[in-house]
């Protein structure tokens, strides 16, 4: 098989994009990354004090399910 022949899994033509604008080149978006980390840390600060209450409710429901299982 020669180098000029195409195999079945290789495309024969490059895709054509019909657009009036210049092609967009992706780049790192540091501004949105900083905003995302700020929101994450803010939520962590807000929900961290609630963690013991959430764990207590979860543990109580698990104990109640083990003691008196529902008929399903």
From TrEMBL:
Which keywords belong to this entry?
A: Membrane, Transmembrane, Transmembrane helix
Residues crossing the lipid bilayer are 34-60
Q: Which InterPro entries match?
A: DUF7535
Q: Which Pfam families match?
A: DUF7535
Q: What is this protein called?
A: Uncharacterized protein
Q: Which organism is it from?
A: Haloplanus rubicundus
Source lineage: Archaea, Methanobacteriati, Methanobacteriota, Stenosarchaea group, Halobacteria
């Amino acid at each position: 098989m020669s180098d000029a022949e195409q195999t079945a899994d290789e495309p024969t033509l490059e895709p054509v994009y019909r657009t009036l604008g210049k092609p967009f080149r992706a780049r790192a978006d540091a501004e949105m990354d900083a905003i995302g980390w700020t929101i994450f840390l803010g939520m962590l600060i807000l929900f961290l004090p609630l963690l013991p209450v959430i764990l207590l409710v979860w543990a109580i429901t698990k104990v109640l399910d083990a003691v008196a299982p529902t008929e399903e």
